[in-house]
Each structure stands twice: as structure tokens, then as C-alpha cells.
Design goal:
about 100 residues, globular, two-stranded antiparallel sheet, about 40% strand, Cathepsin D, subunit A, domain 1, about 15% helix, single chain, five-stranded mixed sheet, mainly beta
């Protein structure tokens, strides 16, 4: 999972001071779909708000991503995601973590 370290007023409201808890990770960079190599700044265990529910997740932090958060298969599997391609929706089956 990926988390952009761009800070906005919204992020400050949602995540507060947790962004200072970034630790070193074992992944040093990732290759994007365009082939660009993007450095990984570290990792963080942080809550993510999705449709008003808060879910905990471990994220790799990178700069200047196109999206604020990109969830991966590990997050989707942990939270029992059901992907409905016909209706373009994702449902998380397990309840939010506290």
C-alpha cells in the first residue's frame, strides 16, 4: 500500500501528527506503470478513512503520487474486500478497526 506525503489541511484533520511516525522500510523504490522509478521514503502504520469508516493499514510513503492513498491486495484481503467490476464498487466486509 502507498501513502503520499503531500500534506494538506484535510490530511492534518484526518491523520493529525501521525505523519511524523514514518519509519525506515525495506523497500527502497518502486517502478510505476510508466516505468518511472519512485523512491520510497519509509513506511507508516496509519488509519485511513474510507466512506466515513476508519481502517488501519501499513503504508509505504512516496512523494507526488497521483492519488493520496493506493491500497493493495494485502489491505483488500485483510478487510475482506469484495470487488464488483460490473457495478464498479468495492465493499469491505470486515468492520473498521479501532
Amino acid at each position: 500500500m502507498c501513502f503520499s506525503n503531500r500534506r494538506t489541511a484535510c490530511e492534518e484533520d484526518i491523520y493529525g501528527s501521525q505523519l511524523t511516525r514514518i519509519t525506515d522500510g525495506f523497500i527502497t523504490s518502486v517502478k510505476t506503470i510508466s516505468g518511472e522509478k519512485v523512491p520510497v521514503l519509509g513506511k507508516i502504520d496509519i488509519p485511513v478513512k474510507i466512506n466515513g469508516n476508519v481502517y488501519q493499514g501499513l503504508f509505504h510513503v512516496m512523494q507526488n503520487l497521483a492519488h493520496e492513498v493506493i491500497v493493495g491486495r494485502d489491505f483488500l484481503q485483510e478487510h475482506g474486500a469484495v470487488i464488483d467490476l460490473k457495478n464498479s464498487s468495492v465493499t469491505l466486509k470486515t468492520g473498521p478497526r479501532k
